[in-house]
Specification:
Layout (H helix, E strand, L loop, with lengths): L1 E3 L5 H9 L2 E2 L8 E4 L15 H6 L7 H4 L6 E7 L5 E5 L4 H10 L5 E7 L2 E2 L4 E9 L4 H9 L9 E10 L4 E10 L3 H8 L16 E6 L3 H5 L14 E6 L7 H20 L19 H5 L4 H11 L14
Parallel strand pairs: 3-8
Antiparallel strand pairs: 1-6, 2-7, 4-5, 4-6, 8-10, 9-10, 9-11, 11-12
Helix pairs in contact: 4-10
Amino acid sequence: MTVGGAVRIREILGPLGEAHKELPNLLPCQKYLKYVNDEQAIGSQSCVGMVGTTLGVGVGRYNGLHGMLLDSLVSVRMAIAAGNIVTASAMENPELFWGIRGAGFNYGTMLEATYSLYDETAPLVLNADFLFAPKASQAILEYFKTFGNSLPAKLSFIVLATYSPTMGGSIIIVNAVYAGFQAEGAKYLYPLFGASPLRQKLGGTVYFIEFFPKQAVEAVPSSATAYPWRNITVHILLNFAYDATNSQLDHRINDFAQSARKNFSDASGFSQPELYVAYGHGDEDLGTLYSAENLPRLKSLKAAWDPKNVYGYDYPIIP
């Protein structure tokens, strides 16, 4: 499948579903089995660009089955700083192809991208939402611990901790998706069935925990692409809703977020910080985003393809 550089994910969901095909981070428009018909689906956002998501790696629900979105990328046509249009693939400009899969914002404008597609895993997808009071947080974490460091390949979770005045204050939402029939997926969810699911559209300050399978992600050698963190089990995101015109409040919230990030990082068990580049705050060092091991190679690519740093907006790699 070949898409233009400006195509958004929502524009390909319908055609993928009609063809009974899928990609790693996209759930096509299939028939969904739901315990709760949530007004706003929790998962990969359809409003973002397809190619931009790929350059930022593309994590999602089907990572355990098909790897990350960048692992499905076959080739790109791109305009480089010198004004030329070039192709990057495993056969043509392979070193550039390595670099754009994980640090691609640094090397050019993507005009189009070609992907490998996968046959539909299942005609029905189980999607379940559970609502908990904050006091259930320990039980939820204990439940996730039973899976160890890797979920079943067809199962994924997103956990949201948020404050909702209409629902009485702080709440925890656990969303589960199983790429298969209800009878197959429900056995993994039995410990959560005691919660009362509600129909709800969420907003405001939210803590996200993304718990995705990684079997197919780790099956790809770490040296195959510039993305270094194939061992990540959980992604944690902090989103804050507040009056940004209040500079004093802005600083206080930013200080709190940075402190929380440090606490999570210190407790992560990793020898060095590891961050999916698309989830960066903007103040991270390049080693956290690209790894100290990959930086020399990425800098050499930058010197060859964009020595004047024309493409320096998003976490620039200075040669």
